[in-house]
Every structure is written in structure tokens, then in C-alpha cells.
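Attaching the record inline, Q. Sequence:
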Amino acid sequence: MAIATIFDVAKAAGVSIKTVSLVMNGHANVSEQTRARVLKAAEELHYTPNQSARSLAGSRSFLIGLLYDNPIPSYITTVQMGAVSFCRKNGYHLMSEPIDSTMDNVDQHVTQLLTTLRPDGIILAPLATDSVALIERIEAFGTPYVRIAPGSDRERSPHVLMSDKEAAAAMTAYLIGLGHRDIGFVKGHEKHGASHLRFEGYVTAMRAAGLGVRDDLVAQGDFSFQSGFEAALSLLDTDPRPTAIFCSNDEMALGVMSVAHREGLHVPRDLSIAGFDDAPSASVVWPPLTTIHQPIFEMAEAAAEMLIARKSAPGADAPQPKSRTLDFSLVVRGSTAPPGGA
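Structure, as predicted:
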């Protein structure tokens, strides 16, 4: 079977070759009816654009880079899936690269990446999203970038986020509404901006309810299961011990739950446990975890869309949205109940 060409697609769709090229390159100045006709013809003919020719013709690599520094597999996998989803629909490829944003030569690593691959844009995911050295190097190259969930200096660049502080306050208020007063909190990675915002949300809700924040009921974690496990050992050794523990992510909440089971505590009768993220594990653990659903997939998808929209705009300096804020939701499952409740 002969490989379909751009000429075949143009003939089948009844349009010019230039129109096919505009559609395949994601240009906005094509009617939706024409775009749909071209895409339908391309799909039926199994047409695949010549990537090298596209790159040379439009000074594009059709490559989006994703840089991340996050130890939680479920989080970064969801980020990758969201970014890939939008890239594939628009003729782009995603290159995903783990990076230690704290290493001394991070700027050299990024320089080599940008020089070799010449991506059309970069998505920065936590913890890389707050790395000043990383951002400065990308800016020096003039490469467009979008940050996911930055915790600081947000006005510096386009970014996508949700309100971590508001979400954490909502979860804390929910636990207070159940009747809990001694509520423990496990912080996330100290270099992740969202960790501080989630703690602020917890403090805000506690004070709004007229409750003090006990220092012995706040433990430092790093988003890992092990840090949640260790935090639980500390928090459950206090007097009075907490009737509920709210963790800055689900992975740490599972660590707390493990300790509770080991110590013979019934969840949620003896201890309510809540998390943050709504990772896949949250719905399969027993009891299922009450958590904040963070739209991680949609945030990554939006970041890719913002980059590609900028590259595809008729003018390179065409104004683009500087930020997008997506909604969270509180997901109530079986790990929380009133103190002493079933």
C-alpha cells in the first residue's frame, strides 16, 4: 500500500496543499468545517506529516520538553499523560526528562538539552517549577515555558495551578465539621511551594474555627510513603493524640494509615485520615481515602495547550493567557468520620 502524501489529503478534502499544511501545523486561521474535513481525510488515508520537513519549513521542532523533579511516580505519570494527550492531538511530541533541580550543574544539563533538541517549549513540573537556576537558563535561550503549580514568583511566567491553600482549608474545615479538634498535619516537601500553601490553608481553617495549632501535631514530610509513616509515629505519640491526621499528599496519608493499622487503630473510628491529590491508590486502599482531587491531568494538558497556542499563533508576540486556575474538589471516602464514629 502506497504511503499517503499531502497531495492525496488535499485532493480527498477538496482543498489546497497550503490549507492542509495550515491544518497540520495547527494554525488558527482555518474554518472549523475545513479543519474537520482535512483531519477526516488525513485519518482515512493514514497520513503522517513529514516531521523533518515540517521542522525545516516552520523553524519548529514540534517537540515539547517536560522537566520534573518529583519522587512520586503517580503524580508525574499523570502529568505526562495530560501533556501527551494534548501534544498528540496537535502533531507534537513530548520529551520527558527527570532532573535534579538542586544539583550544582543543573544549568549545564539544561543547556545541553536545549542546544541538542531545540524544543518549541518547556513545561516545568514540581519541584523544577520553582528552580531559579533552571528558569534563568531557559529564559537565556529564549525558549517559551509554562510552569505547573509554581509556589513563588508566579508573575514571572505563564503558569497553571489550582488553589492549594483554599483546598487545604476546605479539607481542614470538613474535618472540623465532623467534630475533630485535635487535627494533625503532615507537611510536604519543604522545597515545594505548594507544601507551604497547603500548610497555610490548614492553619487558616483551624484559626477560623477558633482552634489553636499545636506544634506537636505538625510533622515535616517529603511527600513519600516513608515520611508519612515516620510522621505518624511522632503524631500518635502525643497527648492528647490527634483524632484526625491530614496529609499534604496521598502517599504520606497511606504511610499514616499503615502505622494506624499496625498499632491496632480502627480507621476511621479511632483515627480519621485525609490526603491530597486523589492518586489512583486513594480509591483502592482500605478504607478508601478521603482526599482533595487535584486536576493534575488537566493542568498538564493546559500547560501544553498554552505552549502550542503561542507557537501556532499568527504572530510570535501574540498575547497569550498568563495563567490558568483549575478547580479542585473534596472527595469524601471511608477514611474519615466523626471522632469515635464508624
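The chain has three domains: 6-49, 59-161+296-314, 164-294. The first helix runs from residue 6 to 13.

More tomorrow.
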